Amino acid sequence: MKNIDRVTLIVLDSAGVGFLPDAELFGDAGSNTFGHIAESTGGLKLPNMASLGLGNLTSIKGVEPLKETTGSYGKAVEKSRGKDTTVGHWEIAGLVKETPFPSYPNGFPQIVLDELTKRTGRESLCNLPYSGTNVIDDFAEEQKATGKWIVYTSADPVLQIAAHEDLISIDELYNACKIALEICNEYSPVARVIARPFTGEKGNYTRTARRHDYAISPDKPTMLDRIKDSGKDVIAIGKINDIFNGCGITDTRGTNKSNLDGIEKTISALKENTKGLIFTNLVDFDMMYGHRRDPVGYKNALEEFDRYLPELINNLKDSEVLIITADHGCDPTFKGSDHTREYIPILVTGKNIKASDLGVRESFSDIAATIEELLLGSKLKNSFAHLI
């Protein structure tokens, strides 16, 4: 394609399309987020993504493979050694992490907790891998009685701090998370520290929309930096700004309500006369339904996105491309409550693109190579721009 002024890249957070060849090393052999959601819920109704070629990527009940599609389709392998949000997004943006971030299956070292107490004035509870909803149910009463932080982790390289908003102000929680990231950078590296505010009473605790992620910066430039440095716009919607710690971003628009909020903000951005990249993350697939092992909720969220897809496409100008992908899997029917190491889908559409089979890409970074060729004229060997 030639004369592309803008690319919109939407990440359906955790919407994987089948386990990777090395998934057994991560305990994820047999996982398939899209496929198992469809199988366990009686099938998916995704006519718009189906027309782009989604059903050609894996077996999805209700989404048949097509000989002729309206868009280009493929899937990609993760080269980075991980299956978390940060590593997935960084690789999509062209940065492969050969050395994974560490995880903490036994909790964080005592020095991390001691420093957190010293620097914030509050002690900590839990310090174990935990489901974000279960940890609140199990430790909220003790927090209310003691005023201690609820500190926990997961299979991902993250430290999370939960606090009841009626007990600990949101500003104090956010400040504690900034301090925790400084401590982790010194003693126990993580990709992110996440603030997890919640409200409610015993038996009815609810996490609020004021979650905030504090991430480390990418250790090398990404496509975001190169697009920004060329003088073009890089509009981050959802948690993209957090994931890249603001690096390479010219405008950030957070979403605190729902996937729909992110979709609507993306549509609004498409109606503006910017040039460059719109980069959107829709986190509810992962946060609300994948980790909580809710295939029905996940199905409904996928079908909601599909219903809005025509409006997204209709707002593309002739010189624009839309790419839909994911950052990892989170199969809600699989064991545990963590991400699953899967292929990610690549669906590409636009008013002047060819419909073609992009095949199995060797890295998520093929997406970055393609976007950089479309927007900057870069000639990178792993680009699939020539196929669309």
How would you describe this structure to a colleague?
With 388 residues, the chain is of the alpha/beta class. The protein has two domains: 6-95 and 218-387, 3-Layer(aba) Sandwich (Alkaline Phosphatase, subunit A); 110-214, Phosphopentomutase (Alpha-Beta Plaits). Helices cover 33% and strands 21% of the residues. The protein contains twelve helices and 14 strands. The strands form two sheets. It has an eight-stranded mixed beta sheet with strand order 10-9-11-1-12-13-2-14, with helices on both faces. Helix 6 links the parallel strand 5 and strand 6 (192-201). The longest helix has 20 residues, at 295-314. It is globular. The relative contact order is 0.22. The model has no long low-confidence stretch (mean pLDDT 95).
- CATH 4th-level superfamily of the largest domain: Alkaline Phosphatase, subunit A
> How are strands sequenced across the largest beta sheet?
10-9-11-1-12-13-2-14
Regions with little confidence, pLDDT below 50 for 5+ residues: none
Integer tally of domains: 2
Q: How many alpha or pi helices?
A: 12
Spell out the helices and strands N to C: EHHEHHEHEEHEEEHEHEHEHHEEEH
Please name the CATH architecture of the largest domain. 3-Layer(aba) Sandwich
- The percentage helix is 25-40%
What's the alpha carbon Rg, rounded to whole Å? 20 Å
Calculate the terminal CA-CA distance, rounded to whole Å: 6 Å
Mean of the pLDDT scores? 95
Give the total of beta strands: 14
Overall outline: globular
Q: Approximately how much beta-strand content do the residues carry?
A: 15-25%
Q: CATH class of the largest domain, anyone?
A: Alpha Beta
CATH topology of the largest domain: Alkaline Phosphatase, subunit A
Oligomer: single chain
Derived from helix and strand composition plus strand pairing, the structural class reads alpha/beta
Describe the largest sheet. Answer: 8 strands, mixed
